[in-house]
Design brief:
Blueprint: H1 6-31, H2 33-44, H3 58-80, E1 101-102, E2 107-108
Antiparallel strand pairs: 1-2
Length: 124
């Protein structure tokens, strides 16, 4: 582990610890009967929905889960297809800009060009 990046390992172990703490808090929440009843009413509803609309949040959460799976799948497919490394111009290299030249006067502008000061005004 001497050649590995310590910040990367610290980030990984911090994330793992946060997941363990969150899972423990969630399990403690589920162990309470009162909390289970509240969660059931929140997800399933209490039957006061109008018409076909549900009164609980479970259908919306299911829809968000399906949307998240679709987005994650598209991200994976885009990453595997190598789309991030392709450009509109194909595999041509990007041109490097050069210093501008002034061919009308025969002088160059940019690094290495001789700078001539303007003529000093004369006193009359």
């Amino acid at each position: 582990m001497p050649s590995d990046q310590p910040i990367t390992w610290l980030t990984f172990f911090t994330l793992a610890a946060a997941i363990v703490v969150a899972a423990g808090a969630f399990l403690a929440f589920l162990r309470s009967r009162h909390n289970r009843e509240i969660a059931a009413v929140a997800l399933e509803g209490d039957g006061r929905g109008r018409g076909i609309a549900p009164s609980g949040a479970l259908p919306e959460l299911g829809g968000l889960f399906v949307l998240a799976v679709v987005v994650a799948g598209r991200l994976v497919a885009g990453y595997q297809s190598g789309g991030a490394t392709r450009f509109a111009g194909g595999d041509k290299p990007t041109p490097v800009p050069t210093a501008p030249t002034n061919t009308d006067r025969g002088t160059t502008v940019g690094a290495g060009a001789a700078i001539t000061p303007p003529q000093a005004p004369t006193m009359t």
